[in-house]
Specification:
Shape of chain A: globular
Largest sheet of chain B: 2 strands, antiparallel
Low-confidence stretches of chain B: none
Helix content of chain B: over 70%
Low-confidence stretches of chain A: none
Radius of gyration of chain A: 22 Å
Structural class of chain A: mainly alpha
Number of domains of chain A: 1
Shape of chain B: globular
Number of domains of chain B: 1
CATH class of chain B: Mainly Alpha
Number of strands of chain B: 4
CATH topology of chain B: ABC transporter involved in vitamin B12 uptake, BtuC
Distance between the termini of chain A: 35 Å
Largest interface: A-B, 43 and 44 residues
Mean pLDDT of chain A: 90
Number of strands of chain A: 2
Oligomer: heterodimer
Order of helices and strands of chain A: HHHHHHEEHHHHHHHHH
Strand order of the largest sheet of chain B: 1-4
CATH architecture of chain A: Orthogonal Bundle
Structural class of chain B: mainly alpha
CATH topology of chain A: ABC transporter involved in vitamin B12 uptake, BtuC
Chain lengths: ~375, ~325
């Protein structure tokens, strides 16, 4: 294929997503107009410019917000691509985050191991936690959507319990903040984006996105996993162990989400796990990120940055006395439209053919 | 004895919303459409139901509740049409459109609440508990459990259970609905309008989901904060645990309701308090027990065969 054809194919693949985003923004604008007509235009402008108005510091903060979302989105996307709907991101996120913070506090080892080991611990513990759902499906046919939902609650209660007996900050009712010695270094990003909360976690997340892209699309194992998700019985006939792959994809999905927890909490941003009986929102945000990206690992990089940007825009929009939840509304509408993006695509192709025929008729006439 | 009465009364508060929503999910899935958006539908129903109740505080208590119930059902039904349209007419991915419903509802409710009244919590006066029913409340034990300190919504839930059972198992409508969920091509070939039946199934699930939201919030709180604490998802677990059948769904909902009561009120039950487990154990029990039950029931799943797949006339 020529470069031009490649570009055309890429743009065509992007088109439905763009249509969905436009629809979501349109609905968001209408709601703003309904809530407060005089400020709607200003509010909308703030959403669109998002975090990209605050100079390098603003951009840094967008990337910082995008980092955990990217990891969770990657995890969910790997699940979707390989046929499992991992809705258990909340549980896996806090499990990974907790064990990362625990080791960050207890291990007295030199850098860089002081932050690498906690990240690995987050990956392993969250993978083990997620694999429970995979094993329950393989051995007992328990629906993964249901088991991961139930495991979210169990994970949350468990982590709250463990925090209270290990790294509890009773004044703030949360886990103690990660000590500086175990925080992920800036890796240059702290110099490039001064005064923002950004650190090397962003680079790690992007590297994982590329790694997952290679795993899924450039290796035999990835091919088997995707095939098993698309058509389990055909894959079984082709000699692929679908069961093993289901557990494996839950493990990978959970590990990525757990690392998301580690990247979020091994930083100096002042964020920690609160001991409250509420599921972590990051797990559900990741579903939006994955769906918006069409479950493509590289798309996840863009979609997490996009959602982070409009989220930052949502904070700024409070200056016009708008409620930041408008961003969640916009994201929900985008996801809704993305449910039939394939259909939009097909109709668009039909429209193109129809237009072409019309034009040719016109020439003849 | 008092502990037992208290435990059972509490159980109803968890049992009834789960029952209603799981029955709603049953109508949707047996018509062949997954409805993972029930959490969002419950939030919508509760929000509009409570707004109605707040607007009608002049009326007698039970009449307020009745109006709230009707509005919550309408709100749930209208909201579900978005899912129905995507899933049935546009043959979209049902998991994604259901997820969108879950994402949209809480954001929308918080946004509206803050636009209308500055704060996101919607407070309401809970005046709906009936202390004691005449005559029936006098019966020893049973009267105490069933007709003292109770909500009329408990009996509404039981009524919905009976009606659902009759509709799904004993009527022509139920048979047609089930046919659309098991084998839509066969249903179509004998002249059943699959699209129409599926719309009805999803709309019933929306109405019951909206109602379930209100029924969950009213007895357990005095403010609504755009959440139903995962009950929409738990109702799906109850549906699967209940094997898509009304009677079994009731048993499953009762089981989970009892576990949840133990988790919430174990400190009031001397027997459990004496065991000395940390409260986390009790909080985890409902979820862990459901997983364990699912381990034993999922292998012989009686899931509707065509649930989750859009119907294409031309495809065989």
């Amino acid at each position: 294929m020529s470069r031009k054809a490649h570009l055309k194919k890429f743009l065509a693949a992007l088109l439905p997503t763009v249509i969905c985003i436009v629809m979501g923004l349109l609905v968001g604008f209408l709601i703003l107009l309904f809530a407060n007509p005089s400020q709607a235009a200003n509010g909308f402008k703030t959403i669109l410019s998002g975090g990209f108005v605050g100079g390098m510091r603003g951009i840094g903060n967008v990337f910082y917000y995008a980092t955990p979302a990217m990891m969770v989105g990657l995890g969910v996307a790997v699940g979707f691509k390989t046929g499992v709907f991992n809705i258990g991101g909340s549980g896996q996120f806090v499990i990974g985050g907790y064990f990362a913070m625990l080791l960050a506090h207890t291990l007295q080892i030199p850098r860089p191991f002081s932050w690498i080991v906690p990240i690995l611990a987050a990956a392993v513990t969250a993978a083990v936690w997620a694999s429970i759902a995979g094993l329950l499906y393989v051995y007992f046919k328990v629906n993964i959507v249901i088991s991961t939902i139930l495991l979210n609650y169990i994970g949350m209660y468990l982590v709250n319990y463990l925090i209270r007996y290990t790294i509890y900050d009773s004044g703030k009712n949360q886990a103690k903040l990660t000590p500086e010695s175990a925080q992920i270094p800036g890796m240059g990003l702290d110099i490039l984006f001064p005064d923002s909360s950004l650190n090397g976690g962003f680079i790690i997340a992007v590297l994982f996105a590329i790694l997952i892209y290679i795993l899924l699309f450039k290796t035999t194992k990835g091919y088997e996993m995707i095939a098993g998700g698309l058509n389990p019985s055909a894959s079984l006939l082709a000699g692929i162990s679908v069961k093993k792959n289901t557990v494996l994809s839950m493990c990978i999905s959970g590990a990525l989400i757990g690392i998301g927890g580690a990247l979020m909490f091994l930083s100096n941003s002042g964020k920690s796990i609160s001991v409250v009986d509420t599921l972590a929102a990051e797990g559900f945000n990741g579903i939006s990120v994955a769906l918006l990206a069409g479950n493509h690992p590289l798309g996840v990089i863009l979609s997490s940055i996009f959602i982070a940007s409009i989220t930052v825009g949502g904070f700024y929009m409070q200056a016009y006395r708008f409620v930041p939840e408008i961003i969640d509304i916009i994201v929900a509408v985008i996801i809704y439209f993305s449910a039939f993006s394939l259909l939009i695509m097909q109709n668009f192709e039909k429209l193109q053919i129809w237009l072409k025929n019309k034009r040719e008729e016109g020439h003849e006439g | 004895m008092n502990t037992l009465v208290f435990t059972l009364q509490q159980t109803f508060l968890f049992f009834v919303p789960l029952l209603i929503v799981a029955l709603g999910a049953m109508f949707s899935e047996r018509s062949g459409v997954l409805n993972i958006g029930l959490e969002g539908i419950m939030v919508m129903g509760a929000f509009f139901g409570i707004l109605t109740i707040n607007a009608l505080t002049e009326l007698p208590a039970q009449l307020q509740l009745l109006c709230g119930i009707i509005v919550s059902m309408i709100a749930g039904m209208v909201y579900t049409l978005f899912h129905a349209f995507a899933a049935i007419t546009l043959k979209a991915d049902q998991t994604i459109s259901g997820t969108a419903l879950n994402l949209f509802a809480p954001a929308f409710c918080i946004f509206m609440a803050r636009v209308v009244q500055e704060v996101q919590q919607v407070a309401f006066k809970n005046v709906f508990r009936i202390d004691k029913a005449p005559v029936l409340g006098e019966i020893p034990f049973f009267g105490e459990v069933l007709f003292q300190k109770f909500y009329l919504t408990t009996y509404l839930g039981i009524l919905i259970l009976i009606v659902s059972w009759i509709v799904i198992e004993k009527t022509r409508f139920g048979l047609r609905l089930r046919a659309c969920g098991e084998n839509p091509h066969a249903a179509d070939s004998v002249g059943i309008n699959v699209t129409k039946m599926r719309y009805l199934g999803v709309m019933i699930s929306g109405a019951l989901g909206g109602l379930g939201g209100l029924v969950f919030v009213v007895p357990t709180s005095t403010t609504f904060n755009a959440t139903v604490a995962g009950y929409g998802f738990l109702a799906l677990a109850v549906l699967i645990f209940g094997q898509w059948q009304p009677g079994r769904i009731a048993v499953a909902a009762l089981f989970f309701g009892l576990m949840k009561t133990i988790a919430a009120a174990y400190s009031g039950i001397p027997l459990l308090m004496d065991l000395g487990f940390p409260d986390t154990v009790y909080k985890i029990i409902p979820y862990a027990a459901t997983i364990i039950v699912l381990m034993f029931t999922s292998k012989n799943s009686k899931s509707p065969a065509a649930s989750g797949t859009p119907y294409n006339k031309g495809e065989r």
